[in-house]
Amino acid sequence: MPTAIEIFKHLPKKNCGECKYPTCLAFAMQLANNKAKLEDCPYLSDEGRAALAGSSAPPIRLVRVGGGENALEMGDETELYRHDKRFFHPTAFALRVADDLDSEGLEGRLAYARSLCFERVGQVLRMDAVEVECRSGDPERFASFVRTVAEAIEWPLMLRCGDPAVMSAAVEMVKDRRPLLHGASTANLKGMAALAKAAGCPLVVCAADLEELADLAASARQEGVEDLVLDPLATNLKELLERCTVIRRSAIRKTFRGLGYPIYLGIPEGRDGMLMASTAVMKYGSLLSFEGLPAANALPLMVLRQNIYTDPQVPIQVRPDLYPVNNPGPEAPLLFTTNFSLTYFTVLSDIEKSKVPVWLQVVDTEGLSVLTAYSAGKLTAGSVQAALEASGALQRSSKGVLVIPGMVARMSVKLNDATGLHIIVGPKESSGLPKFLRSLE
């Protein structure tokens, strides 16, 4: 990334403020810190734009596979460590199917891929893509198999085959899905690059030696393919960690464009494969292709991915609404909590333990916990009243009782005035809810 002064030399120096910064120098400083975009300047010349476009591009290219709402995005990362800012695109998980499967085996494999779906703190964790591998060496069989997979599932596709002649018919079959083509090496680069360019598909280049990998990427660009993914062919944990780290450091710290691409990794079955997968999630893997993934391993891997790629500056939130717990009726009491997901799911779990029917009102506090929201003025008698009215809670519960968190007991008088409900102060900790709720019956 050039310095602010180097960027400033290419700017129009009008100081017009239309970029939302008072001077061109201020705009240049924001560009240098990746806090503004070239498009924000309406008067930047074509020459200036061309001079700055390459240097201002992210160190790792953004590559898209598929299209529409199922599109898979990889790359576009700017940090070596998550705590420096954040990581943007979660590691994608793909399950591999091969064309030596019969129709029943394929159906079972795809059904299993769909079944690897879990919900945690309001987010759905699942697989992201399917990789279709050619093991038969038969162009017609591979093309027919790819078409069957494409018709059976809407997820993004990857096609894995080292022979461009065999790959060609399959690519033609699904090129409108923009699959990722895997298998470009020194031996077949020209053929694979020509196929990817003609179909408008991203391409995976493969080499165990990173200098060779960078040369392959450069050759693919010369052949007209810009959307590339790197496969360093790691076969064990040591190779994976070393090669992924060198690739990421070269791209981020040294701005080496030759390795500035997302990373693909094939994950074997067994214990070693799970160690490789968990390391790849933490250390720069963009796309992991699993030969096999037991459900007992899938859940912790997906939770690990969720934890790493959740923006620490943006709390996970649940939808503000009225939620029935334990099959409540009109005589069930009302409780409220905030829409911070950790708070909500903790409270929900403790209410479920009580077996007491309850209407739980979730109030929009922009993802803040109860005491934090109250201190910040996000949780007030007015906001609780508005939430109850919006959800129709007062029509659902005729008991006339509202249980409030013990930490905000001082809200009780204002809440009584605002809602007309009988306010009962609940426990300070959610763990006390089961005993407390049973005492109300």
Keyword list:
alpha/beta, 3-methyladenine DNA Glycosylase II, Chain A, domain 3, 441 residues, Rossmann fold, 17 helices, 17% strand
Question: Concise description?
Answer:
This protein is of the alpha/beta class and 441 residues long.
How many helices in DSSP terms?
A: 17
CATH fold group of the largest domain: TIM Barrel
Number of strands: 17
Percent helix, as a range, is 40-55%
Give the radius of gyration: 27 Å
Strand content: 15-25%
- The CATH superfamily of the largest domain is identified as Dihydropteroate synthase-like
The chain-level structural class is alpha/beta
Distance between the termini: 66 Å
Largest sheet data: 8 strands, parallel
Strand order of the largest sheet: 10-9-8-7-6-3-12-11
The overall number of domains is 3
Under the CATH scheme, which class of the largest domain?
Alpha Beta
Categorize the overall geometry: globular
Q: What does this entry look like structurally?
A:
This protein is α/β, with parallel strands linked by helices. It folds into three domains: 4-56, Orthogonal Bundle (3-methyladenine DNA Glycosylase II, Chain A, domain 3), CATH 1.10.15.40; 63-309, TIM Barrel, CATH 3.20.20.20; 322-440, 3-Layer(aba) Sandwich (Rossmann fold), CATH 3.40.50. Helix content is 41%, strand content 17%. It has 17 helices and 17 strands. Strands 10-9-8-7-6-3-12-11 form an eight-stranded parallel beta sheet, covered by helices on one side. It has a five-stranded mixed beta sheet with strand order 13-15-14-16-17, with helices on both faces. Helix 5 (139-152) runs parallel beside helix 6 (164-174) and helix 10 (271-282) runs parallel beside helix 11. The longest helix has 16 residues, at 237-252. The radius of gyration is 27 Å and the shape is globular.
